[in-house]
Amino acid sequence: MHLGSRLRAVALASVIPFAIVACGPGGTPSSTIKEGGTLVYALDSDPVTFNPFETSTVPDIRANQFLWPNLYQADKNLSVVPDLAAGPPTVSTDLKTWTVKLRTDAKWSDGSPITSADVVATVHMQANAKLDTDASYDWSILTDPVSGVTAPDASTVVFTLKNPFAPFYANNLVGYVAPASVYANADPTKMRTFQQDKPTVTGGPFLFDTRVAGSEIDYKANPNYYLGKPHFAKVVLKIITNSTAAAQAVISGDVNWDPEITGAAIDTVKAATGVQSYTYPDLGYFDVRFNDRAMWVNKSKATLFGDVNVRRAFAYALDKNALVKAATDGHSTPMWGDIVPASAYYDDTAVVKYQQDIPKAKSLMDAAGWTVGSDGIRVKNGVKFSGKFFVRADKPQRVKAVQIMSEQLRTNLGMDLVPTPTDFKVFYAPIQAGNFDLALAGFGLTLDPDDYTTFSSSQLRPENSSSGSNWTGFVNAELDAAITAQRNDLKATAAETFAARKADFAKIEHILGDNVVSYFLWADNVGMAFNGVNGVVTGNNDSLNYADQGRNVQIFAQWSLVSPK
Amino acid sequence: MTFYVIRRVFIGILLLFFMSAAFFALTRLTPGPPFSTGENPRAHQELVDRRLHNLGLDQPWYQQYPAYLNALVHGNLGDSYVNNVPVTTLLWQRVPNSVLLLGVSLIVSLLIAIPLGVFAATHQYSKVDTTTSVLSYVGISVPSFVLGIFLLLGGAVWLRHVTNGGFYFPLFGMHLNASTTDLGDLVWHMVLPVTSLAILSVAGFSRFMRASMLEVLHQDYVRTAKAKGLPARSVNYKHALRNAILPIVTLVALQTPQFVSGAIITEGIFSWPGMGLLAFQAALTRDYPVILGVVMLVAALTILFNLLADVAYAVVDPRIRY
């Protein structure tokens, strides 16, 4: 395919990864790098598979991250930068054809080169409708799952999209690449069990060595890794099922890296000497998801929160900072929108922050026609303001938050919202069916803050979509337009694209906040701790999200041990 | 006796059949879908439906059960929904670890509890008896997760701190590393979890032993032995203990299936890769075949060891006839 002058470079990211190598790993002076030694990594559960197509749980992803290269990856501030790719992709003038050039020095562990055929085979397998794994891949944006991705030569991959799609870069191009020689001819219907115990060919910074089920997994440095042989000679993943033990292990030095420290253990680790510990908001958030419709979908009940004044009253009646602090013991970051502070797209001026103002909340309820009844609960047309406040029963922090909110809303505002802890297996059923009043829900985020599935009216579930995550019933043309705009805004330069999308996201955040489509609560603070590891570099707000769950695997070849043993 | 054993085996098989049906129905009737996709609200419904269909879970439980029973009769416990390997493979990976941990803790606890119970009984209302009683009640009352965490922090963290790294027990696992086959290393890793389990068992066993011994010591034949002028040591250990220990034999036999089911809390605290941890994780992920595999294995062993205990009772006590 001749792309020639029809293409114009869209510099979607400006970081060049090779620059890192020049000054040593993560900016560490070369003189501090010591070769060899074993990095001991704490994993809280035994992984299930080493087949990248089947990895869907966090332990699986963490165990696999040492083995597989990515096409693109995240940098410390979650911008997308090349990994196997030689540079940013170029996009055609119609913004539908994306071309990725690969580096030519990368090899699989069997010595064969990593080529565009591997990328194409990986996408074909992921897009195969017969692929039977628990991991879900969305390549529906391609014109065709097969012909939509091609390899005109060994180092070029061309993706053809149905329409311009800005999140394609972060959502689709950041991901693992698997060897075609192993996986291309595998039966997609049997992929679940294919090479799940031991991969035969890998291409990441480390190679699979041994595994003792339930206890540990050993990797050894890949001498053929394209950034050079990693400084660690080995990586050992220890299965430590108790979080207290894991935190103490990193303090004592038995473990060099604990990727996930939560709750009170964060304070313990922070207080320890000789431990590098970092705390930052996770890529995800919790919110109170209202049913913004006028009626439940099954028409059995008028909703409580269909009126925007009621939702605003809800927001004004609560002291979010105090509430979040009490519910999570201070181990979280209050949120006012669905973009986490670690994201470059976060704009503090765009979000709408409701400070507690109970008189205003009461007047809004009065304006909405809800008057206080004899028992203190508000009433409208003879119907009490009473409903179930769903929350997952197995999440103590969320249950506590719901209990606090219910109590305050009853006392301050006359809302009778009964905390209803529910088993997670049935938690989503009434919400996805649209037959609920409100629920405390959690959402994971990807590198791109695209909120199409959670807030676009086309993703209303169950009305407009069977798989969408917009359970609110909220429909707003302006919001839909802004969401569409952020997905289509691809400009000539990275700066222009970023600025355009950031403006789109600012508009979205304002609409969401002004209409209190959801009442955003918090992002969990997670801790990551190291003992005796050189080269760790944090991003904004001390964030190390990029160093977790395979978002950036080059770091494993750049870090080193302070005292290798 | 032979007829009795045959009858018990037959009843045991019937019991297993009813238990398999009951547990199978319980797992299937629990609200919500199995395996991890049910937890992910963004999972494509098509993916979930296809998986349910492939596993036969889109049929009513009573239609699924005959296939399960047929496989069970042929020794096939099915494949784990999460690990995608036969349940028997998972059980064989974990059973030896749990048997080792719980077996050693049982031996240790018996070695401590029996002499302690006998001593407390033969020195009833003495300071030692009172102290033993108080400590036993404390041991029985302390939840295993509290005891485990205290032992972890004391034996692996505090001890390391006060000895400046000179002497301490491991924080987690069975071995220092995957290639270690050193018995000493294994024993070292077992100290804290075994202590945790033994403390809880000693408390119960010693109380049981004391009560049983006291009952025997008040029997006529013991009084006769004393009247004959036999030394107290001979009366206590030769005559009384042999009879008093019979209920303990039964108790141990009934506890033996627990070796296989594992100790969920203790294995979790000390990251011991045993059956308890496997069962716990299976319950969290609703891995039905693994849950059923563990339950049926423990049920079968409980029936078997009940039978063995009754037979052993008849063997060691000539008064018992079936």
Mind sketching the topology for me?
The complex is a heterodimer of chains A (565) and B (322).
Chain A: E1 7-9, H1 18-22, E2 38-43, H2 58-64, E3 72-74, E4 80-82, E5 90-92, E6 97-101, H3 116-127, E7 149-153, E8 156-160, H4 168-171, H5 180-183, E9 206-212, E10 216-221, E11 234-239, H6 243-252, E12 257-261, H7 264-271, E13 276-281, E14 284-290, H8 308-317, H9 320-328, E15 332-334, H10 358-367, E16 371-372, E17 378-380, E18 383-384, E19 386-392, H11 396-413, E20 416-422, H12 424-433, E21 438-444, H13 452-455, H14 477-488, H15 494-514, E22 518-530, E23 533-534, H16 555-558, E24 560-561
Parallel strand pairs in A: 2-11, 19-20, 19-21
Antiparallel strand pairs in A: 1-5, 3-4, 5-6, 6-8, 7-8, 9-10, 10-11, 12-22, 13-22, 14-21, 14-22, 15-22, 16-17, 17-18, 23-24
Chain B: H1 2-29, H2 45-54, H3 61-73, H4 87-122, H5 127-141, H6 144-162, H7 183-217, H8 220-227, H9 232-244, H10 246-255, H11 257-261, H12 264-269, H13 275-285, H14 288-316
Helix pairs in contact in B: 1-3, 1-14, 4-5, 4-7, 4-14, 5-7, 6-7, 7-9, 8-9, 10-14, 13-14
